[in-house]
Protein backbone atom coordinates (compact mmCIF):
# COMPACT_ATOMS: atom_id res chain seq x y z
CA UNK A 1 0.00 0.00 0.00
CA UNK A 2 0.91 3.65 -0.25
CA UNK A 3 2.81 5.19 2.67
CA UNK A 4 -0.17 7.32 3.76
CA UNK A 5 -2.53 4.35 3.90
CA UNK A 6 0.04 2.22 5.78
CA UNK A 7 0.44 4.97 8.39
CA UNK A 8 -3.32 5.26 8.80
CA UNK A 9 -3.87 1.49 9.09
CA UNK A 10 -1.06 1.24 11.63
CA UNK A 11 -2.53 4.04 13.75
CA UNK A 12 -5.97 2.41 13.57
CA UNK A 13 -4.50 -0.85 14.88
CA UNK A 14 -5.30 -2.73 11.66
CA UNK A 15 -1.61 -3.47 11.10
CA UNK A 16 0.96 -4.72 13.59
CA UNK A 17 3.98 -3.60 11.59
CA UNK A 18 4.56 -1.52 8.48
CA UNK A 19 7.64 -0.75 6.39
CA UNK A 20 7.42 2.68 4.80
CA UNK A 21 8.75 6.18 4.31
CA UNK A 22 7.25 7.46 7.56
CA UNK A 23 7.21 11.08 8.72
CA UNK A 24 9.62 11.85 11.56
CA UNK A 25 7.01 11.19 14.26
CA UNK A 26 3.58 9.59 14.47
CA UNK A 27 1.43 9.60 17.59
CA UNK A 28 1.49 6.23 19.40
CA UNK A 29 3.82 4.72 16.78
CA UNK A 30 7.40 3.58 17.35
CA UNK A 31 9.76 4.00 14.40
CA UNK A 32 13.07 2.26 13.73
CA UNK A 33 15.34 2.79 10.75
CA UNK A 34 15.49 -0.08 8.29
CA UNK A 35 17.63 1.10 5.36
CA UNK A 36 18.55 4.25 3.46
CA UNK A 37 16.75 4.44 0.12
CA UNK A 38 17.73 6.53 -2.85
CA UNK A 39 15.75 7.50 -5.91
CA UNK A 40 17.83 7.34 -9.10
CA UNK A 41 17.17 8.34 -12.70
CA UNK A 42 17.12 5.39 -15.07
CA UNK A 43 17.19 5.50 -18.86
CA UNK A 44 17.84 2.81 -21.42
CA UNK A 45 21.24 3.45 -23.03
CA UNK A 46 19.86 3.09 -26.57
CA UNK A 47 17.12 5.66 -25.86
CA UNK A 48 19.68 8.05 -24.36
CA UNK A 49 21.89 7.79 -27.45
CA UNK A 50 18.90 8.13 -29.78
CA UNK A 51 17.58 11.20 -27.93
CA UNK A 52 20.85 13.07 -27.56
CA UNK A 53 22.82 11.75 -30.58
CA UNK A 54 26.03 13.76 -30.99
CA UNK A 55 25.36 15.51 -27.65
CA UNK A 56 25.13 12.18 -25.75
CA UNK A 57 28.58 12.42 -24.12
CA UNK A 58 28.00 16.02 -23.06
CA UNK A 59 24.50 15.22 -21.73
CA UNK A 60 25.86 12.26 -19.77
CA UNK A 61 28.52 14.51 -18.24
CA UNK A 62 25.85 17.09 -17.34
CA UNK A 63 23.57 14.45 -15.79
CA UNK A 64 26.44 13.04 -13.73
CA UNK A 65 27.14 16.59 -12.52
CA UNK A 66 23.50 17.02 -11.45
CA UNK A 67 22.36 19.18 -14.39
CA UNK A 68 19.18 17.60 -15.76
CA UNK A 69 18.02 20.38 -18.12
CA UNK A 70 18.44 18.07 -21.13
CA UNK A 71 15.58 15.91 -19.79
CA UNK A 72 13.34 18.43 -21.52
CA UNK A 73 14.05 16.48 -24.73
CA UNK A 74 13.49 13.03 -23.25
CA UNK A 75 10.25 11.06 -22.85
CA UNK A 76 9.46 10.16 -19.23
CA UNK A 77 7.48 7.54 -17.35
CA UNK A 78 6.76 9.01 -13.93
CA UNK A 79 5.32 8.11 -10.57
CA UNK A 80 2.39 10.13 -9.31
CA UNK A 81 2.79 13.11 -7.00
CA UNK A 82 1.36 11.01 -4.13
CA UNK A 83 4.39 8.70 -4.34
CA UNK A 84 7.89 9.63 -3.23
CA UNK A 85 9.48 8.68 -6.56
CA UNK A 86 6.97 10.94 -8.34
CA UNK A 87 7.50 13.84 -5.94
CA UNK A 88 11.27 13.60 -6.30
CA UNK A 89 11.03 13.21 -10.09
CA UNK A 90 8.81 16.27 -10.47
CA UNK A 91 11.11 18.20 -8.12
CA UNK A 92 14.14 17.34 -10.28
CA UNK A 93 12.26 18.49 -13.38
CA UNK A 94 11.15 21.71 -11.69
CA UNK A 95 14.69 22.44 -10.47
CA UNK A 96 15.92 21.87 -14.04
CA UNK A 97 13.44 24.49 -15.27
CA UNK A 98 11.36 21.97 -17.22
CA UNK A 99 7.80 23.29 -17.27
CA UNK A 100 6.25 20.84 -19.72
CA UNK A 101 8.04 17.49 -19.66
CA UNK A 102 7.32 14.84 -22.30
CA UNK A 103 5.36 12.42 -20.12
CA UNK A 104 4.41 9.09 -21.71
CA UNK A 105 2.96 7.44 -18.61
CA UNK A 106 2.16 8.15 -14.96
CA UNK A 107 1.48 5.38 -12.45
CA UNK A 108 1.57 4.42 -8.77
CA UNK A 109 3.16 1.11 -9.85
CA UNK A 110 6.91 1.75 -9.83
CA UNK A 111 7.65 -1.78 -11.05
CA UNK A 112 5.58 -1.17 -14.16
CA UNK A 113 7.31 2.19 -14.74
CA UNK A 114 10.70 0.52 -14.45
CA UNK A 115 9.60 -2.16 -16.93
CA UNK A 116 8.49 0.57 -19.37
CA UNK A 117 11.87 2.25 -18.86
CA UNK A 118 13.71 -1.02 -19.57
CA UNK A 119 11.66 -1.37 -22.78
CA UNK A 120 12.79 2.11 -23.83
CA UNK A 121 9.49 3.99 -23.36
CA UNK A 122 11.15 6.74 -21.35
CA UNK A 123 13.38 7.67 -18.45
CA UNK A 124 12.07 7.07 -14.93
CA UNK A 125 12.84 7.98 -11.35
CA UNK A 126 12.76 4.92 -9.13
CA UNK A 127 14.13 3.49 -5.89
CA UNK A 128 17.60 2.06 -6.36
CA UNK A 129 16.68 -1.05 -4.36
CA UNK A 130 13.98 -1.83 -6.91
CA UNK A 131 16.50 -1.48 -9.73
CA UNK A 132 18.86 -3.90 -7.98
CA UNK A 133 16.15 -6.45 -7.25
CA UNK A 134 14.04 -6.12 -10.41
CA UNK A 135 16.55 -6.00 -13.28
CA UNK A 136 18.63 -8.87 -14.57
CA UNK A 137 22.36 -8.27 -15.06
CA UNK A 138 21.79 -7.99 -18.80
CA UNK A 139 19.00 -5.44 -18.38
CA UNK A 140 21.12 -3.44 -15.94
CA UNK A 141 24.00 -3.28 -18.45
CA UNK A 142 21.57 -1.80 -21.01
CA UNK A 143 20.59 1.01 -18.64
CA UNK A 144 22.18 4.25 -17.54
CA UNK A 145 21.79 5.12 -13.85
CA UNK A 146 22.15 8.68 -12.62
CA UNK A 147 22.38 9.75 -9.01
CA UNK A 148 20.33 12.75 -7.94
CA UNK A 149 20.85 15.20 -5.10
CA UNK A 150 20.92 14.32 -1.41
CA UNK A 151 17.19 15.18 -1.26
CA UNK A 152 16.56 11.99 -3.27
CA UNK A 153 17.70 9.88 -0.31
CA UNK A 154 15.52 9.03 2.69
CA UNK A 155 15.07 6.43 5.43
CA UNK A 156 12.70 3.51 5.05
CA UNK A 157 11.56 2.65 8.56
CA UNK A 158 9.72 0.04 10.49
CA UNK A 159 6.64 1.38 12.25
CA UNK A 160 4.71 -0.41 14.98
CA UNK A 161 2.25 0.60 17.67
CA UNK A 162 3.63 1.72 21.03
CA UNK A 163 2.35 -0.92 23.42
CA UNK A 164 3.29 -1.85 26.95
CA UNK A 165 4.05 -5.34 25.61
CA UNK A 166 6.13 -5.70 22.43
CA UNK A 167 5.17 -8.80 20.45
CA UNK A 168 8.46 -10.73 20.01
CA UNK A 169 7.69 -11.68 16.41
CA UNK A 170 7.92 -7.97 15.45
CA UNK A 171 11.47 -7.73 16.82
CA UNK A 172 12.38 -11.02 15.15
CA UNK A 173 10.95 -9.86 11.82
CA UNK A 174 12.86 -6.56 11.97
CA UNK A 175 16.12 -8.34 12.81
CA UNK A 176 15.68 -10.86 9.97
CA UNK A 177 14.75 -8.11 7.50
CA UNK A 178 17.84 -6.08 8.42
CA UNK A 179 20.02 -9.18 8.08
CA UNK A 180 18.48 -9.90 4.68
CA UNK A 181 19.01 -6.39 3.33
CA UNK A 182 22.60 -6.30 4.59
CA UNK A 183 23.39 -9.58 2.81
CA UNK A 184 21.65 -8.59 -0.41
CA UNK A 185 23.63 -5.44 -1.06
Account of the protein in words:
The chain is of the alpha+beta class. The chain has 8 helices and 7 strands, in the order αββααβαβαβααββα. Strands 1, 2, 5, 6 and 7 form a 5-stranded antiparallel sheet that branches. Strand 3 (75-79), helix 4 and strand 4 (102-107) form a beta-alpha-beta unit. The radius of gyration is 18 Å and the shape is elongated. The protein starts with a helix and ends with a helix.
Topology of helices and strands:
Layout: H1 3-11, E1 17-20, E2 29-44, H2 45-52, H3 56-64, E3 75-79, H4 84-95, E4 102-107, H5 110-118, E5 124-127, H6 128-134, H7 137-141, E6 143-147, E7 153-161, H8 168-184
Parallel strand pairs: 3-4
Antiparallel strand pairs: 1-7, 2-5, 2-6, 2-7
The level of helicity is 40-55%
Helix and strand string, N-terminal first?
HEEHHEHEHEHHEEH
Q: How does the overall form come out from the CA principal axes?
A: elongated
Distance between the termini: 24 Å
Fraction of residues in β-strands: 25-35%
